[in-house]
Task: inverse folding
């Protein structure tokens, strides 16, 4: 029986480290809408726990003795699909295996916390609890999302807006026509959604900048994997990189990425700063910078993910004369960010995932026909 809106989300923690299990229990149970149903030190113990009662979400370490986490994940997805969040260490191998886990059906990946002070402890708590809430609301093969529950605020500070990083755009100023530029934002479920969209684009696709909520260190492996699959060139952001036809740049984890005008083209700026809309990188920051730097030359696309990051500043792209698209509910793993954009009236179109690549190319053709001359 699925949990009611007032019931806590039951989490099964699977990790071979006793200290990690204790730390994760403490973090999870700091949120009254989450509870640890059971803890397991390996896949076999987890399987026994699941015979007693199925959890709403599994928090899974990939590196375990005996049956490793990847094998266990594949068995779960074959036999009884349910939301799984990967808790991974920050290593090159860990990030690559985490991406394999996302392709195998995991909903999200979080960095195994090692808090060194109170601020980092609070941030790790927020990240983990948000990921578990999003996973519980996710939809996928063989599973239904839990009723929508708004998690209580875990950090006693106001949720910051894009104003913390850059001022609002002057939407009354008409910017000259340039090459079209595409700004995309995604969160939970976005890695596979982005793979579908970016790999469907031809080599002459317009320049693309992407914020995908991922931990620091994982975005480089994500960009490298997509680059090996797609016809366009895909890279992790470095400050000052230019972005043009046939190129996509993905924001690096734990930093904000802004679009900047560079003569008749565009480049990206990588900046530090506080989390905006509870995220760093933030989709709101990217979208605002797109509205400011490119205005009517911009197509903003908001895709699957929990929360509202990007929903507000998608409206700034619209107000600046650009085009805006939200992914539809049926094709989202979590219909949170697109829902908020639609609710606010900021999405000019709502499209299924398999039509977004064609919409990108259609926007580029219409924009170039309008007389960019570049």
Result:
């Amino acid at each position: 029986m699925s949990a009611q809106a007032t019931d806590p989300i039951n989490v099964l923690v699977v990790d071979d480290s006793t200290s990690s299990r204790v730390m994760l229990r403490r973090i999870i149970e700091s949120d009254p809408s989450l509870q640890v149903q059971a803890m397991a030190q390996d896949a076999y113990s987890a399987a026994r726990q699941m015979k007693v009662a199925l959890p709403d979400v599994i928090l899974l370490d990939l590196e375990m003795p005996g049956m490793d986490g990847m094998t266990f994940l594949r068995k779960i997805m074959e036999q009884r699909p349910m939301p799984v969040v990967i808790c991974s260490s920050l290593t090159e191998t860990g990030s690559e295996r985490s991406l394999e886990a996302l392709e195998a059906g995991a909903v999200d990946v979080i960095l195994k916390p090692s808090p060194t002070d109170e601020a980092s402890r609070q941030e790790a708590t927020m990240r983990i609890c948000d990921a578990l809430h999003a996973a519980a609301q996710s939809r996928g093969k063989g599973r239904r999302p839990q009723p929508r529950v708004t998690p209580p605020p875990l950090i006693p500070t106001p949720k910051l807006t894009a104003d913390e990083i850059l001022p609002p755009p002057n939407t009354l100023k008409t910017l000259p026509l340039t090459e079209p530029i595409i700004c995309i934002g995604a969160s939970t479920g976005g890695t596979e959604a982005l793979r579908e969209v970016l790999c469907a684009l031809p080599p002459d696709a317009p320049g693309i900048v992407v914020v995908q909520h991922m931990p620091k260190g994982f975005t480089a492996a994500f960009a490298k994997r997509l680059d090996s699959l797609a016809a366009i060139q895909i890279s992790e952001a470095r400050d000052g990189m230019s972005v043009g036809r046939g190129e996509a740049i993905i924001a690096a984890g734990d930093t904000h990425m802004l679009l900047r005008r560079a003569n008749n083209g565009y480049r990206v700026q990588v900046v530090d700063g506080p989390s905006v809309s509870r995220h760093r990188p933030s989709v709101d920051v990217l979208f605002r910078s797109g509205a400011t730097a490119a205005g009517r030359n911009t197509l903003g696309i908001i895709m699957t993910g929990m929360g509202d990051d990007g929903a507000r500043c998608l409206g700034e792209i619209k107000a600046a004369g650009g085009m805006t698209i939200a992914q539809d509910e049926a094709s989202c793993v979590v219909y949170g960010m697109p829902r908020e954009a639609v609710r606010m009236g900021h999405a000019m179109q709502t499209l299924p995932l398999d039509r977004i690549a064609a919409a990108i190319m259609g926007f580029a053709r219409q924009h170039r026909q309008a007389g960019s001359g570049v």
